[in-house]
């Protein structure tokens, strides 16, 4: 409310103003206002004279801070680093399938306990299957993108995919290492969904998914590239734990979700 009050106060100091189509004050049109010491007089200006403007209140300026003023502090995010710089108007967006099930959640706790104690692995915030990279979507593109994707997948039927293997992954920047539960049965249907998502992304000239995707549910992560320290012995131990639960580990795909910044969209399947 402070910013709104300040804006009202700023606007009330000027009797009239003119703006061009791009929102910049048009200096070709003279303005008039009462100046201190000139009671009931109007000071006329030449069209070519320089027009002085009142400074914007601090509350308003803070609403439009420059990109350089917004930084990501890794300490506040468990050491995580942004994959790309924050730019006002760009919303981090990705398409995914929720995979938060009691059986998977319980298993991931067991698997994390088997990891080397000298590595700091954090449990993932939410379990999901990614169907796209994380891309930058401009705000005015969000609704058209969702509508385009909804039209493509809205007629698809729900299906089930199964976890079969533990594997290790790193992100493109090699700033984090992930352990994931790799999907076996259901892989081809997931590829079809990625193709539909790719078609939408290409409409907006955005990068598509990986050419040969390895669909997986990341259940924990560690800062940096420590994949070389998750050797065959550790992976085999994790796989043995997984093998004891294979019959009960599946993901029922009944909806596709898209997260864009703070916005979440749900597209149900038939």
Secondary-structure topology with pairs:
Layout: H1 2-12, H2 58-61, E1 90-98, H3 102-112, E2 122-123, E3 128-130, E4 135-138, H4 142-153, E5 159-170, E6 176-183, H5 187-203, E7 216-223, H6 232-243, E8 250-253, E9 255-260, E10 263-268
Antiparallel strand pairs: 1-3, 1-4, 1-9, 2-7, 5-6, 5-8, 6-7, 9-10
Sheet of most strands: 5 strands, antiparallel
According to DSSP, the number of beta strands is 10
Shape: globular
How many domains make up the 3D coordinates?
2
The CATH topology of the largest domain turns out to be Cyclic Phosphodiesterase, Chain: A
CATH architecture of the largest domain: Alpha-Beta Complex
Unreliable spans = 1-51, 59-72, 74-80
Helix content: 10-25%
**N-to-C SSE series?**
HHEHEEEHEEHEHEEE
Summing up helix and strand content along with how strands pair, one would put the structural category as: alpha+beta
């Amino acid at each position: 409310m402070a910013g709104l009050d300040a804006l009202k106060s700023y606007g009330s100091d000027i009797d009239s103003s003119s703006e061009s189509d791009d929102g910049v004050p048009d200096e070709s049109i003279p303005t008039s206002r009462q100046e201190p010491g000139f009671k009931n007089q109007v000071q006329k200006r030449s069209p070519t004279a320089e027009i002085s403007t009142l400074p914007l209140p601090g509350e308003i300026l803070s609403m439009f801070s420059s990109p350089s003023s917004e930084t990501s502090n890794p300490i506040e995010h468990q050491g995580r680093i942004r994959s790309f710089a924050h730019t006002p108007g760009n919303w981090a967006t990705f398409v995914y399938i929720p995979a938060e099930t009691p059986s998977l959640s319980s298993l991931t706790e067991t698997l994390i306990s088997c990891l080397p104690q000298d590595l700091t692995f954090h449990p993932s915030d939410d379990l999901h299957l990614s169907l796209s990279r994380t891309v930058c979507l401009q705000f005015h593109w969000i609704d058209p993108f969702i509508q385009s994707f909804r039209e493509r997948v809205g007629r698809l039927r729900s299906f089930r995919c199964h976890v079969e293997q533990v594997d290790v992954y790193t992100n493109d920047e090699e700033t984090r290492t992930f352990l994931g539960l790799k999907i076996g049965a259901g892989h081809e249907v997931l590829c079809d969904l990625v193709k539909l998502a790719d078609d939408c992304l290409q409409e907006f000239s955005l990068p598509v998914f990986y050419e040969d995707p390895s669909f997986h549910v990341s259940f924990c992560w560690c800062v940096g590239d420590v994949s070389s320290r998750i050797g065959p012995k550790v992976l085999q131990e994790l796989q043995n734990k997984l093998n004891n639960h294979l019959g009960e580990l599946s993901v029922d795909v009944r909806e596709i979700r898209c997260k864009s910044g703070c916005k979440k969209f749900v597209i149900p399947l038939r």
